[in-house]
């Protein structure tokens, strides 16, 4: 176990103490987090909470000012400088769901949580030379003691229960080293992110342990864990698991090859390769992508809206206007900068991107950040939107190769769990990225939700309930706490009969001929699907 794992063990008395009682009480009336809601910063007392919020004192390094608090450590509610532009609104509000299922009629049988990782530092962006805007703050102590503490977990090497990473510099702090680390272009998670992940973990415990789906001891086999093979995702996963089960995950129960997406180079039975996108690609998917990409660059939307927003953003940030083909990549870089700086609490983000009242990213329809966010997200989902509009048959084929195989695995796991198959986990948590959630929203044709980048810790949850009176299973789909209508039947909301849901997603399951990987590298519990 690395330094971070040891530091979490030291924090277990704090993390297990105060929240448990209030959380259990809140769960009786629905899953409300012990922190109730996340608001604007407020001062607090208590050395233990302050130590966890600000990080350990470092000799010769000034303490950052107290800016956000972790008062839920003492059971007094949760506060942090964030809102729905930065964080899953369910975590912000402390409410796991916007409506509940009648427990006298239905019993929960299984759940699959696909989610984005927690708050992090900034990706390396060569297009902007790792410079967000003039006079940007960075993670060096000289620039921002606050941000330096956010990335300081008490040791030089970052580590989780699965991996350790050697010290890497922060390219945004050059020539200083900076405290935040970026490994092969991918940034580390932050202490604020860890706190938010713990809050979501408490909500998951309330929903799935206190409800009786999983015993409090979390026996082996009841939970399956997946995470992209990077620090921010692994940090999120182990923090949430600790909140759910009261202990860190062990390598014996969750070995690297069965937990970390990308740990094995090739899709292999027992490995979570199917959680990643484009695993059934090949030449056909490449050709469809190229055709869609060419159409995007020729579209009126690209030539007008995207270029206009890119020019406006370039003027605000002091960057040259990007080449037309690079406009979306440029917007992606600045979205990353704004989200990290503003949502973490660095006071240097250009006002043009912020809500005047909250000083956080403005997601409004006419706001610059909102327009930047929606146009860049539209480029990410362009392939799905383009083929849906131009050729429904090709759309189905494209979707199946792009990510539809995930529905084959999801349906197999949920159906097996609903039937009581002991091989199927009761709860699965997959910590990936926004780019994994957005296409699934698009598959369901939830266009308004798919139009914006999912914020940190966004969740797409599939639950299976059994009707006690007739014994039939039904599926409920939630995105960031909101129950979604995914099935067309007039009586298929908020619960969709399992067979209706299965038929809905079956059209996205590729055939064995189109995707042999699915049928050779995954062990179906209930028999192979009739894909294609």
UniProtKB/TrEMBL annotation:
Query: Gene3D superfamilies, per this entry?
Result: Phosphoglycerate mutase-like
Which InterPro entries does UniProt cross-reference here? His_PPase_superfam, Histidine_acid_phosphatase
- UniProt keywords, alphabetically: Hydrolase, Signal
The GO terms describing molecular function are: phosphatase activity
What does UniProt give as the signal peptide span? 1-23
Q: Read off the PANTHER family from this record.
A: 2-PHOSPHOXYLOSE PHOSPHATASE 1, ACID PHOSPHATASE-RELATED
Protein name according to UniProt: Uncharacterized protein
Q: Which organism is it from?
A: Alexandrium monilatum
């Amino acid at each position: 176990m690395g330094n971070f794992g040891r530091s979490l063990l030291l924090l277990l008395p704090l993390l297990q103490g105060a929240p448990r009682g209030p959380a259990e009480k809140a769960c009786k009336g629905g899953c409300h987090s012990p922190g109730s809601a996340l608001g604007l910063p407020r001062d607090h007392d208590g050395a233990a909470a302050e130590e966890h919020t600000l990080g350990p004192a470092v000799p010769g390094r000034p303490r950052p000012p107290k800016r956000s608090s972790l008062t839920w450590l003492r059971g007094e509610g949760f506060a942090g400088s964030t809102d729905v532009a930065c964080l899953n609104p369910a975590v912000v509000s402390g409410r796991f769901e916007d409506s509940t299922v009648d427990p006298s009629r239905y019993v929960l049988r299984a759940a699959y949580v696909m989610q984005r990782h927690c708050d992090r530092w900034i990706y390396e962006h060569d297009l902007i030379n790792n410079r967000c805007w003039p006079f940007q703050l960075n993670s060096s102590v000289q620039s921002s003691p606050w941000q330096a503490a956010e990335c300081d977990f008490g040791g030089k090497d970052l580590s989780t229960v699965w991996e350790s990473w050697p010290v890497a510099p922060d390219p945004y702090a050059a020539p200083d080293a900076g405290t935040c680390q970026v490994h092969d272009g991918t940034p580390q998670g932050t202490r604020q992110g860890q706190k938010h992940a713990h809050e979501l973990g408490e909500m998951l415990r309330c929903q799935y342990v206190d409800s009786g789906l999983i015993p409090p001891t979390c026996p082996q086999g009841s939970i399956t864990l997946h995470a992209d093979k990077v620090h921010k995702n692994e940090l999120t996963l182990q923090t949430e698991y600790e909140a759910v089960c009261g202990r860190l995950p062990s390598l014996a129960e969750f070995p690297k090859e069965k937990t970390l997406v990308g740990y094995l180079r090739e899709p292999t039975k027992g490995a979570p390769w199917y959680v990643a996108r484009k695993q059934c690609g090949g030449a056909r998917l490449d050709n469809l992508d190229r055709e869609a990409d060419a159409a995007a660059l020729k579209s009126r939307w690209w030539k007008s809206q995207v270029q206009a927003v890119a020019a406006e953003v370039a003027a605000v940030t002091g960057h040259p206007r990007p080449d037309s083909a690079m406009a979306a990549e440029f917007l992606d870089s600045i979205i990353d900068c704004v989200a990290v700086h503003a949502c973490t609490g660095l006071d240097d983000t250009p006002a043009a991107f912020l809500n005047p009242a909250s000083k956080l990213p403005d997601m409004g329809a006419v706001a610059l950040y909102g327009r930047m966010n929606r146009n860049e997200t539209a480029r990410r989902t362009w392939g799905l939107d383009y083929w849906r509009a131009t050729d429904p048959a090709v759309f189905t084929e494209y979707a199946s190769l792009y990510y539809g195989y995930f529905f084959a695995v999801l349906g197999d796991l949920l159906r097996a769990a609903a039937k009581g198959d002991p091989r199927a986990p009761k709860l699965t948590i997959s910590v990936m990225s926004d780019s994994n959630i957005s296409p699934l929203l698009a598959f369901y044709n939830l266009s308004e939700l798919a139009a914006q980048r999912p914020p940190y810790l966004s969740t797409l949850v599939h639950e299976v309930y059994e009707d006690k009176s007739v014994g039939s299973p039904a599926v409920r789909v939630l995105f960031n706490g909101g129950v979604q209508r995914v099935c067309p039947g007039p009586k298929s909301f908020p619960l969709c009969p399992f067979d209706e849901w299965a038929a809905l997603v079956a059209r996205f399951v590729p055939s064995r001929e189109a995707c042999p990987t699915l049928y050779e590298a995954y062990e179906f519990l209930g028999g192979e699907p009739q894909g294609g």
